[in-house]
Amino acid sequence: MSTSSGWNLRLWPLLPHLSAKAAVWPAGVARHICDSLDSTNTHALRLAPVTPGPAWILAYEQTAGKGRRARPWVSPRGNFHATLLLHPKEPASQVALRSFAAALALRDALVTLTDLPQAFSLKWPNDVLLNGGKLAGILLESTASGAGVAHLAIGTGVNLIAAPDASLVEEGALRPVSLLGETGLRVEPEVFLTHLAAAYALWEESFTTQGFAPLRAAWLAHAARLGQTIRARTGHTTHHGTFETIDASGALILRIAQDTLAIPAAEVFF
Hints:
Layout: E1 9-11, E2 24-26, E3 30-37, H1 40-47, E4 55-62, E5 80-86, H2 92-95, H3 98-114, E6 120-123, E7 127-130, E8 133-145, E9 148-158, H4 179-183, H5 189-210, H6 213-221, E10 229-234, E11 237-246, E12 252-256, E13 259-263, E14 267-269
Parallel strand pairs: 3-4
Antiparallel strand pairs: 1-2, 4-5, 5-9, 6-7, 7-8, 8-9, 10-11, 10-14, 11-12, 12-13
């Protein structure tokens, strides 16, 4: 693993089984490859006190994978389960915006590997879609330091070879899909990690040097159902309206009749 500091990129020596498409590994970013973990997010936060710099943790298998709202995440071998551990300096409200950096990095990695830019889109707040189905999800977890964030775990799950049965997902949710099933492309988890780490490093640099504005513009350029009617469920309330944009805080802006509603957290249905 790299031990130098910073987010500048250098070429990582590729193992013999890696993809023919070259990728770069971010300098100063550690890499931990594990056979089996309960959860890569949980393990990342366990490592946080003794890991001074950024680090990626990959597990070939998770026994207690987590999705949003404490839902289980099915984590069979061959799929991608990894977490990026960071020690952010920004206020908590800004730290959470890294979910958009993660989504953009996921899309970039997928486009690089498949050369299918039109097939991938981004669903607010933190899903990546392939041909309109859910391919990947992102989960942010953190530990506090006073009023701020001490450690941030950005967990990513990608259905590389298998997707959950559609009967197992919530009614109205998007159909789960896999990269292999939709494209015929088989990508090894370590190969995908190399591409994702390289892509994320670029968006991290953009975020820390230029703020959220470039991420917001790029995310909106690939947003699913922008300008269309969607449903946003917050607790026991469901709002129907037009997905107009996201604001500078990352909140969903929904137009309902002549008014707009800013929604900081919700589940979105198409």
